[in-house]
Amino acid sequence: MNKDKLFEKLPMEGVKNIIVVASGKGGVGKSTVAANLAIALARNGLNTALVDADIFGPSIPKMFGIEDVKPDISALGDKEIFFPIKKYGVSIISIGFFIANNQSLIWRGPLAGKAITQLFEDTQWGEIDYMIIDFPPGTSDIQLTTTQKLNLTGALIVTTPQELSLNDARKAASMFTNPDLKTPILGIIENMSWFTPEKHPDEIYYIFGKGGGLKMAKEYDTVLLGQIPFVLEVGEAAEKGLSIFSQKNKTVVSAFEQIAEQIISKT
């Protein structure tokens, strides 16, 4: 394929800022961060969109409690136009809306790349201040296609504090620093930074280690945007389709509010 064609950008008219949320491995809470960051931005009065780019394991519909909801579709010539589903003030699109909950996608890379391009190109977004993209873990065709096709404002890297997670997060970060795909790393978000028992709010346990997020931020000459504690209520809320703003732990709420404020100030 012609290199100029490969790197031809999608127009994405009306979308001001596009930020990807990435991690090197699964299980670090990347989708939880992406979802609640989008909600935090919307709570600031900003038109916010969330794209679930995890083609093979979409989790955003479950986290928003909209698994059984289908987006409206209109015909425009020989194309179908999708209309995002809105919840908590966020306009959401996901491949999960178009497949059964128990259905798996068995696609080769080019098909996955085509599918994610279609989600961006054929969705009626309207005016959007911030589009948050929840990447799948790793550095696959989805990440490559998205980075090539969109004018990205920047990337957020999610990691947990331990060295094993940092090693994987570095792989994700290295993709964005590649000369052909150079994308600003807006900051590091450290998830599961510590655990505090609900009945003992003054106690802090660093069960996954300490200081990993700050270490990585220094390595990539960026900032540690926030540290999110490990709180059982957050996972329970996601299982019920509720946001972190619905639960009692204000430490988590405050962390997301501060991260959103920093992103707004940076962009």
Map the helices and strands.
Layout: H1 3-6, E1 15-22, H2 30-42, E2 48-52, H3 60-63, E3 73-76, E4 79-82, E5 85-87, E6 90-94, H4 109-121, E7 128-134, H5 141-149, E8 154-159, H6 163-176, E9 185-195, H7 212-219, E10 224-230, H8 232-239, H9 250-266
Parallel strand pairs: 1-7, 1-8, 2-6, 2-7, 8-9, 9-10
Antiparallel strand pairs: 3-4, 5-6
Descriptive labels:
267 residues; alpha/beta; two-stranded antiparallel ribbon; 34% helix; globular
How would you characterize the overall build of this protein?
The chain has 9 helices and 10 strands. The protein has 267 residues and is of the alpha/beta class. Helix 2 packs across helix 9 (250-266) and helix 4 packs parallel to helix 5.
Short synopsis of the structure:
This protein is α/β, with parallel strands linked by helices.
Mean pLDDT: 88
Reading the helices and strands in chain order gives: HEHEHEEEEHEHEHEHEHH
- Sheet with the most strands? 8 strands, mixed
Parts with pLDDT < 50 across at least 5 consecutive residues: none
Please estimate the helix content: 25-40%
Structural class: alpha/beta
N-to-C span: 34 Å
- Seen as an oligomer or otherwise, the chain set is single chain
Radius of gyration: 18 Å
Q: What's the overall geometry?
A: globular
Strand count: 10
Looking across the biggest beta sheet, what order are the strands in? 5-6-2-7-1-8-9-10
The number of helical segments is 9
Fraction of residues in β-strands: 15-25%
